[in-house]
Amino acid sequence: MKHFYFLAVLTFFSLSDFSQEKEMVCDDGTILKISNNSLAKNNNPGVSPMSCASGSNLVTFYATNNAQRGHMFDINAVNCVTILCFEMNFNVGTTNVDIYTKTGTHVGFEVTPGAWTLIGSAANVVSAGVNLPTAIPIAVNQLIASGATRAFYITRTTAAGPTVAYTNGTAVGNVLASDANITLREGTGKELLFSTNFIPRQFNGNVFYSVNPPCVLPIELTEFNVVQNGNVVDLNWTTASEKDNAYFAIERSVDGKNFETLKNVNGAGNSSTIKKYTETDAQPLKGISYYRLKQVDFNGQSSYSELRTVIVKNAGKTYVALSPSPAQNNLNIEFNTDASIVYTIEISDIAGKIISSSAITSGKESTKTSVDVTELSRGMYFVTLSGNKDAERLKFVKE
Hints:
By secondary structure, the chain is an all-beta fold. It folds into 3 domains: 6-211, Jelly Rolls, CATH 2.60.120; 217-312, Immunoglobulin-like (Sandwich); 315-399, Immunoglobulin-like, CATH 2.60.40. The chain contains no helices and 33 strands. Strands 6, 7, 9, 10, 13, 14, 15, 16, 17 and 18 form a 10-stranded antiparallel β-sheet that branches. Strands 20, 21, 22, 23, 24, 25 and 26 form a 7-stranded antiparallel β-sheet that branches. Strands 5, 8, 11, 12 and 19 form a 5-stranded antiparallel β-sheet that branches. Mean pLDDT is 82; it is low at 1-19 and 36-50.
C-alpha cells in the first residue's frame, strides 16, 4: 500500500495582499504576472502531497523571481544516499518533463548532451501553481557515494508550456541548502534542451532521498588512462569492485560533445577484486580525440567516466589538450611542437583577469606539464598557451 506524506505551509498575510499582482521578467524575456491569490487555485491551499514516500528530504525554498525552461544543479553526498524523486517550482500550466543526470559536476557540461544520461520522462505534468511544490512523477533512484557529486538536469521538453521557476543566485557552486546527508549547490538556468545558460540560479524545490550505508556502486573505477603508442592509442582502466556490470562501451569524440562507440568490452558482472582492462584504438583520428567509458548494468542503466584526451600529431599543426575535466587539484596540459620553443602558460578567469603565468620549454614532439589549481574557486577558467607565433586558448572547469 502506498502512503502519501504531506508538507504543510503556514503563511501570514494581510487582506490587501490578495489584490496585489506582481510582474516578473524571466530569462527568456517574457513578462509573467503573478497574483498573490494564485494560492487559492488549489483545493487545499498550501498543502501538497509528496510524490514518493521518504523519511528524508531537503527543502530549498519556493520564492521565484525568474524562470526558464530548465535547471541544472549539483548534489554532494556527505553520507551514501539514493536520490528518489523531486518536487519543483513551475509556473501555471501543463508540460512534459525530462530528468537527466551525470556523475560529477554539471559545470563545463551545460551544452554537452553526450555527457548526460536520461533518467526518465513524464507527460502532462500539471503545475500546482507558482511557489508551490509540484511533484515530478519520475523515479530518479540515483545512488551517490559518500563524498561524491552527481549533477541533475530537470527540463520541460517543449518550447511552449509553463516555465521552471527559480531564484537568481550569488555564484554557481555556492551552497544553497544542506543537511546531515546531502548538500545542494547553486546551479544554472537553461534554455530548451542543453541550450543557453543563465547563471547563477537557485533551485526551488524538494529533494527526497534515502540513506544507504554501506554504499555499493555499480563499479568502483580507480584508474582510466589513454595514451598514444606509435600509430595506435592504448586504453586501460582498473576497477576495485563491480556490481551487476554487463559491459563497458569505449566511446570517442573529436569535440567532446558528439561520441561514437568504438567497441564493447564485457564486464566482470559481480566482483570484489581488482580487475584490469586493456584495449586499443587501432585507427585513431589525427589531432585531439576525447575518450570515455560508458558502463552499462544488466538492467540497462548506465553511467560515464571522466573524459580523457590524446593528441595524434599532424605535421604543421599545434594541438593542445587539457585534463582532467573538470580539474580539482592539478590541470594537465599536453601539446605537440615541431621544435624546442619557450611557451608561456597563463591562467585567467572568465573576466580576462590573469591569475597565474609560467614558462616552459617544449620538446620536439609532445610536451606535458601540470598547473596547480587547488586554490582556485569552483567555476570556469581559461588556459592560454603562447609561443613564437602560435597561441591557443582553451577553457577548463575547476570543481
